[in-house]
Design goal:
Its EC number is 2.7.7.65. It is built from 10 helices and 5 strands, in the order H-H-H-H-H-H-H-E-H-E-E-H-E-H-E. With about 325 residues, the chain is of the alpha+beta class. It has 2 domains: about 170 residues; about 150 residues, Alpha-Beta Plaits. Strands 2-3-1-4-5 form a 5-stranded mixed sheet, sandwiched between helices. The longest helix has about 35 residues. It is elongated. Bound molecules: guanosine-5'-triphosphate. Guanosine-5'-triphosphate binds next to helix 9.
Amino acid sequence: MTETRLRTWTHAGGYTLAAGFIAILALQNLRYGFYNLFYLGLAMAAVLLVGLAYTVICRRHQLSAPGHAILLTLINAGLAATVVTLDAPGIGHWAAPLVVLNLLILPLRRGLLLSAALLVPVLLVSWFTSPLVAALNLTGGLLLLLAITAWYAWRYDHMAESAKDLALTDPVTGAQNPRFLDETLQKEISRAIATGHPLSMIALDLDHAEEIRSLHGTRGLQTLLRNITRQLFDIIRAGDSLYSGDDAMFFLVLPFTPEEGVRVIAERIRRSISEQEWPEVGPVAISLGCTTRSSDDTQAETLKARALQAMAEARQRGADTAWFIPGEPAQA
Ligand SMILES: Nc1nc2c(ncn2[C@@H]2O[C@H](COP(=O)(O)OP(=O)(O)OP(=O)(O)O)[C@@H](O)[C@H]2O)c(=O)[nH]1
C-alpha cells in the first residue's frame, strides 16, 4: 500500500470514528435535555463528515491537502470557545477525539500545537469549575492520550522516513539505488541538450571482487563497498551523483564535465582507491570506464552502454586502469 493510500484510509477512519463518537455524545445530551450540547455535537459531527468527504475527494494528494488544517482548526476553535463560554459539565471529554484526530491527520508539530491550543482552555476551565478529583482525572487522561498519540505519530513519521531512505539508497553500499540511474541520466541528457553543457559518465568496478568475497566473506566485501562509497562521496562534487550497480559496480553521472574533466576525476578516483590500505582487506584496485556525451547521444542506454564498454576495455588492459571512449559526433 502506498503512503498516500495508507493516509487516506487513516484520515477517513479517524474522521468517521470521531464523528461517530461525537454523535453519540450529542444523542446522550439530547436524552438529558442539554439541547446546547446536542446542537454543538451535531455541528461538530457535520464538520467531521465534511472532513471525511474532503479526504475522499483529495485521495490522490493527501500529503499536501491544506483543507485538513482548516477544518481541524475550525472544529478545535469551536470546541474551545464553547468550553470557555458555556457552563456545561463533562464537555472537557469532548476534547479527547479531537486530540487524536489532530495528531493523526496533521504533521506532528502542527498537530501538537493545535492540541495544546485546545487543551489549555479546556483544562483551565476544568480546574476552575470542577471538583479537584474530576479536574485531576480529566488532566491526567487527556495528557496521557496526547502523549500516546504523539508517540505513535512520531514513530510512524520515523518509519516512513526510513522507508523513503531505503528506497532511495542502496542498503549495502549507501550509494543511490540503481533503479533511479536511468531516469536521472535521461534527465541530465535532456538538460545537457537544452543548455549545451557537457555531460560525462563513469562505470566503475572493483577488481577481483570474487577473490575478495571468497577471502573475506560477503560481509567483508560489503564493508569494503561501503567504505569505497564513502570515499567516492568525499571525492566527487555536489552536482555529481553516485549509483550502485550489479555486484561490486558503481556508476557516476557527472553533469557539466567535459572529456578532459572526466579523465581528471577518473584518474583521481583510481589513485585514491589504489593508494589506500582498506580495513581488513588491504590494498584493492578498480577499473573505470569513462565517456562523454556527444551531440548524437540522446538516450541514457547509449551512454551507459559506452561507459560499460570502456570499463570492459580497462579490465582487458590489466585492471587498475581508467579508459575513455568518446562518443561519435553527429554527422553534418
Ligand atoms: N564532475 C566532476 N568533475 C571534476 C571533479 N574534479 C575534477 N573535475 C573535472 O576536472 C577538471 C579539473 O579539475 P581540477 O584538477 O580539480 O581543477 P580545478 O580547476 O580546481 O577544478 P574546478 O575548479 O572544480 O573546475 C574540472 O574542471 C572538472 O571538469 C569532480 O569532483 N566532479
